[in-house]
Amino acid sequence: MNTELFIGGNYVAPSQGGRFADIEPATKNRLAMVAAADSADVDRAVAAAREAADRGPWPRMTAEQRGKILHRLADAIERRARALGTLEARDVGKPIAECINHDVARAARNLRFFAAQAEVWTQEAAFGAAKFLGADLRLVNLTARSPLGVGAIIIPWNSPLMLATWNLGPALAAGNTCVLKPSELAPLTCLALGELGNEAGLPPGVLNVISGIGEAGAALVAHPGVDGVAFTGGVATGRAVMASAAQSLKRVTLELGGKSPNLVFADADLQRSAAGVARSIFRSQGQSCVAGSRLLVERRIAEEFVAMVIEQARRLRIGDPLDETTDYGPLISAAHRERVDSFVKEAAREGAQILTGGSAPEQPQRGFFYLPTILDRVAPRSRAVCEEIFGPVLTVERFDDEDEAVAMANSTTYGLAAYLWTCNLERALRMADRIRTAMVWVNSFFLRDLRTPFGGARLSGLGRQGGRYSLEFWTEPRLLCMTYPEGTADG
Ligand code: NDP
Known about the structure:
By secondary structure, the protein is an alpha/beta fold. It is about 40% helix and about 25% strand. It has 2 domains: about 5-255 and about 460-480, Aldehyde Dehydrogenase, Chain A, domain 1, CATH 3.40.605.10; about 260-440, Aldehyde Dehydrogenase, Chain A, domain 2 (3-Layer(aba) Sandwich).
């Protein structure tokens, strides 16, 4: 387990020797003491990335050459799938089956996908005409995309390896060098990427990973040596990142939270929809930006449907994340469990009915477990309905018709995702058109082609990731204009 900072191709101790404890959510035991970067370490990491961007081979390699190395990094991840999945399960508390089969597999896929995208990404050319110094000229305008330079990537604790590679993939494939800052709550698989990058042949300085707590993130975003920032996390920090980046007009992309509704109509396949709704909110214990945390259900099927979702919630196997049969693990930390519980208690004080869950499990569980929770009769403007809880809490609201459903779905300040459950195609299209989220799924949850735009509208974020959207973010479009005179050489 690597717990030092990874800078310039080597694991190094933090300059002031700072460390913080990384706690295992399922046991409350200390998993590791991890290096805490301060602003001097941020300087070192950015200097290494800057050197590799300005004088190293990486930006000048062809997309194919870089792609070969990224494929080797993906190979290294796949070879270590069990070890990385186990580390992620221990560090994050997610069930190991999900870590290995989804997160680690997606980490390799992210790198392979963007390596391939960068190779086939075509650039533009346009012919034109202009008069210059009295001569009639023909123009050839070429648009070339150069790497942006040094990227700062700040990712959260809920899916560290998957989100790190989702951002590193396009940044590296496009020729940038990077400083990756994982969350202090789950930094271990990101730190392991340094060693895997060396094994794959990434030149020194191309990938730097700095763990830290309370200082490194802000110092990294403010650093004059950084050219672009990709931040995934909460809205408040996203605002601070944007304000800081504005000082030097750095490019910023923000992937923030959500309060995504599941809209269930009476014409839906109710059994499948109930399983889908439960999965959308209880997968990763609700600690997901795309969690379907609101159930908006047509009134005439509400009682029947809610009972089906409760049944799904109660069927989840809660337990040790390292057990292959576990569906549902602990929350990330004691503070987060308290925060989740405070939403539930507040809603209950305001009159909400707790249909299931609403507390830690009764049988002694050592970790930060919290039961899958469903709240009914929640006051429409209550915090539980309007704010992201980022935990396993589903609120239930009822609607009578499409207009009311749309008004409810659009009533929060977020705009990430919506899930429509209906067998009526025209209704699905009509609703998708009226709902103001950046992503809409019909009769499914979170399935997607990596070429499509992922991200949020309104308070859910800024910019999009995926396919060409990511490659555009990580490159600077540049014009090269060449001319030749009108007519032929022989007049
Ligand atoms: P935060 O939004 O607080 O982000 C924490 C990360 O941001 C750390 O790496 C931290 O680094 C860095 N950071 C803090 N301040 C700044 C700053 N001013 N400039 C740059 N970087 C900074 O995440 P939390 O984990 O505390 O989660 C808070 C809430 O965010 C959750 O409850 C949830 O609602 C939401 N969230 C959303 C996620 C998503 O996928 N969209 C993922 C995780 C959380 P340092 O330690 O050095 O300060």
